Each structure stands twice: as C-alpha cells, then as structure tokens.
Amino acid sequence: MCSIRCFRQVSRTSKQLLRFCSNKGCKESKKCAELKAAGTCKDSIKKDEKCKKDDLEKKEKEGCKDDGKGGGKERKKVTLLEGDGVGCELISALKQVFKVTDVPVDWDIVDCYMENAKLNPQLLESLRRNKVGIKGPIDTRDLKHLWKAFGLYAYVTLCRNLEGHKSRYGALDCVVIRDVMEGEYSGIEHSVVPGILQSIKVSTSAGSDRIARYVFQYALKHKRKKITVAHKANIMKLTDGNFLSSMRTEAHKHLEKVKFEERYMDTTCLNLVMQPDQNDVLVSSSMYGDVLVVMASSIMGGKALCPSFYVSKNGLLYDTLLKPTRDIAGMNLINPTGMLLSATLMLRHLKLDSYADTIRCAVERVYKETDIRTTELGGSSKCSEVTDAVCKFISEGKK
Question: What residues does the Isopropylmalate dehydrogenase-like domain cover (predicted)?
C-alpha cells in the first residue's frame, strides 16, 4: 500500500516525496529503495545520516541503560584509591586494560590522607556517593582507619585455580570470608604493668549475626553448595562460641538450600591442604580467616592471583591481597593479575558483565597460551609485559 502511494506522488519534489515516505514508514519498500538508488533521495539520505549521527552523539552524552550483559553505555562512577608502594603500578595496569576494553567507567580519584596525615574526608564522601571503589595496597595501620570510618565488616577472597597455571595441590575453587571489625584484630592492646601485655578479642552478637547473614546471602546468590565455619570454640568458649552460635542460627534458616558444617581451625587448615577440592565457602573470625586466606591463595599459586573485596552497608571496596611491598615499588616486578580479576568482580557488580567476561578471558588466555609469568611464579616477565599481553588478547577479540 505504501509503495502504491509513493508511485502516485512521483510528480512531487524529491523533498516532499521523502517527507511523505518517511512519515508513512515506507523506507523498506521496494520503490523507495529504487528511488534512493537512482539518486532521487540523495539529499534525504544525507539528512537521515546526519540525524542518526546526532542521535548517536546524544545517546553517548546522555548514556543509555545497560542490559545486564554489558550492551549499554551508561557510564559508572567508581572511587579510585592508588594506595602505597606498588599501588601505582597496579592501578596503572588497571587503567590501561580498562581503556583498551572501552569500559564505561569514570574514575573518581581520591587521596587516602591529607597533608596532616588524617584520613581524607573526601575519600569517605566519594565512597558513600559512588557505593563502589577499587584500591591499590595500603599499609595495614592506615587500612584499619578506613575499615572503621567506612564500616567495612567483611573481607571476601576468591581462590580458584587459573587454567594454565599448574598447582601441586590440585583443584581449588573456594571463597574465604572473614570478619574485619572484631575478633583478634579488634586492635585493642595495652600494657597492664611493665613486662605484662594484654590483647582483647572482641565478639559481639550484632557483629557475628551480621557476618553470618552476609555469608549465607553470598553463598545463595552465587550458588555455592557448602559453608564451613572454622573456629576454636572448644578453647575460647565465649568469643568463638558466640561467633559459632550466630552461624548456627543463620544456618537453620537455610537448611534445604545450602549445606553447613563446623570444623576446628586446625582441621580446616589440614583439609584445605589435603583435600582442596572439598572446600567451598570458608568463614571465620579475623585472624583465623587471615590464615585461611594465605593458605588458600598459596595453594592456587600466590596472593597476586586472588581477587578480593571488602563489604560495608555503604558499598563495596575491591582490592588485591598484595601488600605495598615498597622494596620493589617502581621496579615493574609486581603481578597485576589479582588486581585485574578484582576489577572483573567489580564490573559484574556494576552489571557490566560483557566487559568483565572480556577481561577475565584475556587474563586466562595469558596463562593458557603464553609463558608470560612474573618472578614469584617462576618466570621473568615484568608487570608491563603481563598487562600488554592481556591488552593484546582483548584487542584481538575486537577484530
């Protein structure tokens, strides 16, 4: 019908014809296609192309909603904290990979401390505003200030073998979740009298309940099958007993959805080494959990390979297990793998899944298809070489 009406209007000017066809939705009609091919609608094509270009520019400026698969272009704001020591090199690698991947993220770069050595209030404002951040390594003393100020109460570390990097211990795919605010790392120490020192281990019902709720929420969300709580309630009946009680109470709410088991800390460590593939989600207090993280990360190849993040009711803060290690800062020796994998977790949290998949795949290809390894993994490659290799695989995937 549309084509017939186009024929009847053939005596009209090309401009009028274009307006008529466009209004009636006949762009795909055969006759309109012939007219355009004949040059009748040349001006209109240019105009249409200009409109499309203007619309595209407008969408890029305004941003469009992401579809959960990374298909959209809505830009996200993320707090970026460079950190100390090797932090500069890790963050530089992160920025380079994000740029090559065209990740729609804008950095809100903030310093941790002001000139008077006090915690920068702009950092806390940025984290509360953006609700997500990523940081390089920070000195433990300074990190404790950030824990308390931003209310970081849990630390999550993913320990999974990278295909292509062999482990003498076998397959491992577990998550370690540890308390940050309480337990042995409460930070309450003092001298009673000369020669006698005292450290206080704090355990509150509110804090233990909060960790327990998060652990089960995480396990259910990520389809984990088993939660193991590591404790020494047989010795520390009150503090560890309180932590264990909270875990039991929460476990009773999810009996049909996820398996729950209790193990002494020493037994958990033994099982982690002897049967690494039998571990799923491990949860414990601050110091016990710290030990489990070191063991699990070592089994999979080292701290440099593990992604991790802090949890707060105000948001999430992603990072790497690496310390500032100032002795090698600026020497291009640090391994950026863990930082890049942490970034993929952050992108999934931001619903930018396709970008996360692209980076994760590129990192895995480096280990599967090349012999590029940093020194702690037995190689001689530099941080920049690992980063360049990841970027190369990302670029190849775009072709």
Answer: 77-390
